[in-house]
Amino acid sequence: MTGGPKIHGDCDPAFARVRRVFENNFARDLETGAAISVYVGDEPVVDLWGGLADHRTGRAWERDTPCLAFSCTKALTAAAALRVAERGGHDLSAPVASWWPEFGTAGKERTTGEHLLSHQAGLPVFDRPVSVAEAADPAAMADLLAAQRPRWEPGTAHGYHTFSYGWLAGEIVRRLDGRSVGAYVAEEIAGPLGLDLWIGAPDDVIDRAARLTAGPGRGGAPAQAPAGGPVAALARAARDPGSLLSRSLAAPDVDALPGRFNSREVLAAGWPAAGVLTSAAALAGFYRDLLAGRIVSPGTLRDAITPRVTGPDRVMVLDSSFGLGFMRPSLVFAVPRAAWPGAFGHTGSGGSIGLADVEHGVAIAYVMNRTGTELSGGTRAMRLVKAVYDSLD
């Protein structure tokens, strides 16, 4: 198939099928602007980008164009928490109340740091509406969650903490290190490793960020799912305003803000569950450096990607699997069969993905500004990841 904008960048001939899939996404009008980056070890084998960063002005996507990658942020927050714990000798299996005394109330006395990192804390929704302005204050958000009673006994079940995850896991960083997640990532990870990513972006980064849009060709809409099966259950939960899924997506109230996730207020706030602005090259570089032991030790990483929970997710209603902050292969982190033993990472709402594989030594990131209706990953990302693994074979 021909057509679509010119694709820029480099691609090792052995990974030519990745380029073909990436080009095909544009030719089929599935993209506005996008980028993909792949490392094998420290070797860059795919670094491609194309299309428009802003469809209104015609501004082109560049290699370093930062794009909001939604819940891909959770992996960065987890890595920051793991690094703080490793460097300080903190035991994440100990009760949270041992370092966050205000949290140890209302049935949360036995909640551990591992529960916070693996979506087992029972706090996927807020008990009251939360404004975007409030969400810019991590201490205030942590106080709200510390006062709540969990929806289930922590450690007995898991359910995706869409936004609250960031202020729970982020408190590991804030309480034990003293810095916010955004500051810690900037000063200890992104800055030293030369990664163009920000959790709470400055004005000049926001000025050149990709503008999110929606349009024809979006894939995987839950509302159009077949009548039966797990995806249909997800669709029903998404349409039910009283479900934990809908309620977890409703606070902070982004819909009340002009521009929604394109708002400067959101992009500058540094939400530690869904606020990262990153280029594909930087997100892939983060996973490359995780694999290389530059962020946490190999032992800490191996322990962190060991699944803590696998099975029915009380929020997403599909089966999910999580280690300490990282998704493992499941219905909501769909990867090729060859990736199941070693792949970990995190998807972002609308289609983005960051992934690494401890068995294959590969790191992958894909970001785009035409958001699909997928709540986790999407078919565009799945096709690209499959092309990478087919190329490895």
Question: Please, could you describe this protein's structure?
Answer:
This is Esterase. InterPro entries: Beta-lactam-related, Beta-lactam/transpept-like, Beta-lactamase/esterase. By secondary structure, this protein is of the alpha+beta class. It has a domain of 225 residues: Beta-lactamase, CATH 3.40.710.10. The chain is built from 14 helices and twelve strands. Helix 1 packs antiparallel against helix 14, helix 2 packs parallel to helix 6 and helix 5 packs across helix 6. The longest helix has 16 residues. The two termini are 25 Å apart. About 3% of the residues have low confidence.
Explain briefly what this protein structure is.
It holds the Pfam family Beta-lactamase. Residues 23-384 form the Beta-lactamase-related domain. The chain has 393 residues and is of the alpha+beta class.
